[in-house]
User: Fold these one by one.
Assistant:
Number 1:
Amino acid sequence: MRYDVAVIGGGPSGAVAAAVLAKAGISTILIERNLKNVKPCGGAIPLGLIKEFNIPDELIEKKLSNMRARSPKGRYIDMNMPNGYVGMVRREKFDHYLRSEAERAGAVLVEGLIKSITHSGEGFVINTLNDKLAPLRARKIIGADGANSITANELHFPPNELKVIAMQQRFKYTPAIQKFSDIVEIWFDGEVSPDFYGWIFPKADHLAIGTGTEDNHHNLKALQKRFVEKIGITDRPYLDEAAKIPMKPRRSFTQTKAILVGDAAGLVTPANGEGIFFAMRSGKLGAQAMIENIKNKAPLHNYEKEFRKLYAPIFFGLEVLQSVYYRNDRLRESFVAICADDDVQRITFDSYLYKKMVPAPFSTQMKIFSKNIYHLIKGR
């Protein structure tokens, strides 16, 4: 059968895109390589995303407004979000729900790993490794198949330039672990990650502990082992997970008949590695641009233009932050010290919850700027 659009990848970006397309009357097929796959992910989503996509309360396992940052020397800075919370979701449940929403909207959901994508006439022919699935035809393609996107490779998009490899372990709650059940902890510590950070994310029935580092630069398993040791946990995890995270948008993620969204486009922010929000927002924006392209011949490049207009300042700001403060433990110590400032916390959390650059009074900007200069000099 021929479809208007084939969405390749059934994670948050692909599922959202398929749902938006199907609701608009665009014939859509959603191809997921493994419907039982559990995506390694911290699973933290901001309040703004929960509201925009009407995420059901039952999918939010924890609503956390308390957070703690730890420095290399063991200094803790406690922070709280008076105007919102971080929602913790479990990706296997979350992704299943989003795919179900796409099906309810009218998208066809199939399982199959992509083997090849070839141009044919006015569209594409898609072959999978699923013997029961005949070659699929589509006029347009949305690649939503992650950091190692086969779609991007087959259609010759520019490569993902920077990838972090992340590892996470899940621990069942025990009396020793229960104390972490109601707070998010972020560790800025070279022994845990020389160029990223470590996280402790509580879920309903388990604790997710993970760390990351630039691909092939360090021994990730050794970093994770050291992290768990430093936390003081002696229990054994019941699940180990690992995945690559693209930390920089591709130079281009649109073509005349195809676009990339989510991790496939490299839309994970530097410094904090946040991906779910940008996956779902890019899926929505990309699908809207695809609808305009099919119905009104508007160029697909409008999607990339709009995404960069909305979020390029956030990506740039976080890239600068990571390049400045994540280089060594002296600078990480300084970064955590800055986090103690009430204005820094307020601006950070207000921006995080709704992904908007929050303006601050000039006096506040100058105070934060001065503190940055002081701590950078001290860190060096």
Number 2:
Amino acid sequence: MIAQFDVNTIWRRKFGQALRRRDDDMLLLAPRAIGTKNDSREPGDDIISLPPGWASRTAAIAMPMLQWRAQALAARRGGRIDTAIFTSFHYLPIARRLKHSARILYYCSDDYRSYAGWGGPAAIDREAELCRLASLSIFVSAALRDRAVAEYGLDPATSLVSPNASEARFSESVAKPEELAGLDGPIFGVVGVFNERIDYRFLERLASSPEVGSLALVGPVLPGADSTGALESLRLSPKVHWFGARPHDEIHAWMAGIDIAVIPYAKSDFNHYCSPMRLWDHLAIGQPILATDACDQIADQPGVIVMPSGGDLDRSIRSAKTAVTGGRRPHLETWDDRAAFLLPLIK
């Protein structure tokens, strides 16, 4: 039986769910602190309650508990864990215990060194050890895999790249939200969370360009998102339209409703190494994508209009507008596509 530790983020869950659609003999483990609300639970999640601070201050107690409960859950379903997929080095203690009885795999879905409180030499050593224990390490970006090969001495033959993906609904025809229908075109748009990962100066320049009809911003603005003052300027611009957070099951309509998708990541290690789900969603929709050069995976994606630092923004905007006249060119890569490729290797 395959057990994935854990599915507590949407991108890990989508990955696990796709694997289980091809092999239903699988545990999708969702560790939760005792008393935590299960608002984010989805059908099929295997909830395991653990002491508060289970991934940090109580890990010495919680990790063995998680292992025992996962093995007991497998036994109740008539099997045992013979393949364990670990999604971060927090689960290294369990990997050490299971290495003699199960095949260990590492699914690296993010640059964990950039997480608050996760970095430093100890984190690097723990991830390196997990890579060495794993018979296969799967990275969501080539940049992450190449770094592991260079810094951990990881054998390239035991590692591969499998980016994040999209869902079929993003490639389907859908009505444009009424709120977008009346905006001046072309509509440039950013859909997602507005946090410190976004380059607000870039958006400010975009909104001030005479080449832009409207700039639609769809998603929540998190506290501390911007320290430059550009966010306030965007709030005052008549071209900029804020629509706030929208339910995830409506996001595909909002993404499809804009003419030119914008992925305005700021320069950072985290953005450089990431595999943005919004990239694959917009590729599935097929409208032109205008992006900064902060993310290695976006910059290497054919067809994306990449605006380099210090480049001519208006020229990039005009290129995107020209691409609009050629119609949409959907390119769908689903989580099921990823699972079809990976499952034979995992099993």
Number 3:
Amino acid sequence: MKRSLLCFGFLMVLEIASGGRALAQSARTTASFYIVLNSLTNSCSVVDKTPRTDTPNITVASDAIYKTRAEAETAMNMRPSCKR
């Protein structure tokens, strides 16, 4: 019993020392951009939300996650499947 209380106390000290981030999930504060291919129109687009792959005509054109929209658009223009 004493040992479990001691471990619990130690975890609480770690939680307080880390500013409350030790047990919480980290929030995504940076923007993420993805390249998505629409197979019906054979065109690519850049989206800022995680693409849903449960629709049959939408596929992720690249596994990469880009930090800026400009990086994603440059990479989209380089992909052969996204050329118009």
Number 4:
Amino acid sequence: MIDDQIRAMVLAAGVGSRLQPLSDIVPKPLIQIGGRTIMDHILLLLKKHGITQVVSNTHHLANQVHEHFREIEAKEGIQLKFVYEESLSGVAGGIRKCQDFLKESTACIIMGDALTDIDLTDLYNKHKEAVTKHNCIATVAQMQVKDTTQFGVIVTQGLLDKGSDTPNRIIKFQEKPKPSEALSDWANTGIYFFEPRIYDFIPSEAEAPRYDVAKDLFPKLLAAGEHIQAISIDPKTYWADLGTPAQYLKSVQDITEGRVNLDCLDCIDPSAQIDESACLEGYNEIGAQTQIGKNVVIKDCIIWDKVVIGDNTNLEDCIIGSNSKVAANQTLEKQIIIAETSKSRKF
């Protein structure tokens, strides 16, 4: 368990363009999976490891995020503060706006669009050990991946020098390299522990209106000779960026198969009304008060709250937004449907 004085930031300002039109009506941190929103899962993970003082930056559809968590302190004992960004300023720019809150302690930084069961206590302990031994300013959680073109890649001292006494020390970052150009297959998960002095390296908003962590801050720290370390998380740890429809659907499958070790993972809401003649195949998430008609076949789909699915309809690899109605006698595949904007798209 982490010291309860440690603070955290959940980054929640992004637009989530790859999930449009879903993200046109619901901010990405509030996209539901396993019976809760993504950000619910993150906040409960922080609480599980003893972190209950949290700040979050918001921008896109910010009022929805603020309203959703209005009673979180009373319900969960999590003290959640919001800092609204009028315009997006990059990941480090968002952190800059929250630095007065964060610099009171070592801080955990975590993305608001990741589903993970990472052992934050273990990561924190390894961070503090490196602070003592090497005056480490930041620790990055890394995970081995198959496709480096989708991630920022980390190169550590140990990859180049097997006999190094600081094998975890980061010496270089690569942004989404081709496999032929990648110097490692270890990805930056966007989960960090920062020491308070790190904020001195982030320029003012006037100097840099947009400032990123991986592209701007970390290279600046390396150039200054600061010690940044990468810690490889347990291979059994679950971590996924729910940034695309395909990954969103895949994570529902992973939850159903028991690969995600989190509480509140209920993919079929008990209030859903599913006709006894309907057939649910594969891996599905079905939200509250959704009605599924006669002889419906649903395979590998995500269906949000208060959706009505007409009789004799076949859905496969579809994502249906809340309050939508799917007419009877249809066959749909790889479709996102949103009632509020009457938008739909193939993916």
